[in-house]
Amino acid sequence: MSRQEIFGQVKQAFGFVPEYLEKAPDSILEQYWSVLTFYLSDTALSARDKALIGFGASAANHCEY
To answer: By C-alpha distance, which of 50, 11, 4, 12 is closest to 29?
Structure first.
């Protein structure tokens, strides 16, 4: 997927393209966007449940973010 296609999808989802995504290298941008779209979408687990799992994993790993 090209950089412009990803930016189009980001803009459609959020209404703008965050600066940190504009500065991201192509290889990281595509990977980040594919993970983020999965993370925010509803599957067998809701987006809320996925966020809670991510929060729990970050806490268990002592993530500083």
So the answer is: 4
